[in-house]
Input
Amino acid sequence: MRGTTPRVTVLMTVFNGERHLRAEIWQDIQLSSGQQIQAGRTLDLQVRRPNRLHAEVHSPRRNRELLYDGSSITLLNRAQNFYGTIHAPGNIDDAMDTASEKFGIAMPLDDFVGSDPHKDLLEKVTSGTDIGSVNVMGIPCEHLAFSQNNIDWQVWIEKGAKPVPRKFVITYKDELGSPEFTAIFSNWDFTTQLPDFVFKFEPPPGASKIDVKELREENQSHKTEKQSK
Amino acid sequence: MKTAIFLHSLMQKRSRRFLACVPACLLALPILAADRDGHRDSHGGSVERFNHGSVRHSESHIFRPPSPAFRGPDHHFVPRHDVFVHRDVDVDIRGPHFWHDFAFHRHISALPHGFLSLRIGGAPYFYWGGIYYQPAEGGYVEVYPPVGAAVPEPPEGSIQIYAGGQTYYYAGGAFYVQQPDGQFVIAPTPIGVVVPELPPGAIEVNVNGQVAYQFNGIYYRPVFVNGVTQYQTFTP
Output
């Protein structure tokens, strides 16, 4: 528990490694027309350390779920009712590494579900600035800004007895147009007990199981068959 | 220990403002932390990092295949590379294109302005905007993209796909390949490749108890790629 204060240590004991949070995510993207827009979605996260995770990504047209039960990760495409499973023993950190690096599965805000967010966030920082106090959704926060080789990132941390992140922004400096990823956090809950069934996957009625492909190589293998004109 | 090294390196940079803000971050972040077991040193992998919203994976490798040079006269066509990019957003970034409205055997009375006349295997075809037509009573009908059709450029919104050492331009269920003369010819569909979207009008079928889709005699099975649903061509 490096870098902790007695007050935080007490809080950690109380929280017992369980948390539930919601984040509203806004992401700069470019349409095929070249127009820049922001796409939004919400993320509900439930975490029980060391090896349980439940994430729901909601948007008007696309909903998906990611479950980790300590031995496997299950993806569910709710819109089309497809699901797939990856074997991933270990803890949440290992599972997120497997998901990200072997299967290319983006788990937004995975910096905040790992066992050591402090290390994950600050490990490659080269400089930082305390911008000052500002309100986020009416909550007084301290605004901190950090810089790394390829990204800048900012975090707004609630002042007072519950210093949780309230806003998080990553700016991809080396991407064309320096797009940003923004998350607004709400509903931090460290007290509700999360039972096992929250993390256990039950296929919805009529759901089809499909393969989960490992990261594709640039040049896919294939064969060509005769096709009628 | 690493924290100490980190702070030491920052002190060497005399970043006073940074040192002022670190305690605040240290105060907050451990709340999120709990038992720490094991290490994660591998940050590699071919992940489109932009979609992650992750500082930890911010240096992940990006798939960005080279854009092949077009031969022949100037083209306004700009290929899409997003087939390699994980798009976990609620926006259709490709946008609707004319060929997205394809409906097999839809009857029209007049061809779109600017159509091309083609002859493939001795049969007459007409082409505009990624859709092919054949003559029918009282007009024309939309037909599947015929293998061997040659057009000056791929349909707008085509997606570049690399497979078997070949660059394809995928649109409307057709796989175009550029020829030495600069034209783009529809090749037989490569089997085993993954495409980000189904051809318009593909119908759902059941193949050996598994859900699949069929378009012009080609079958597509849904698969998760980069965590999102895409479609792989296959032979039942």
About this structure: Chain A touches chain B through 115 residues (CB under 8 Å).
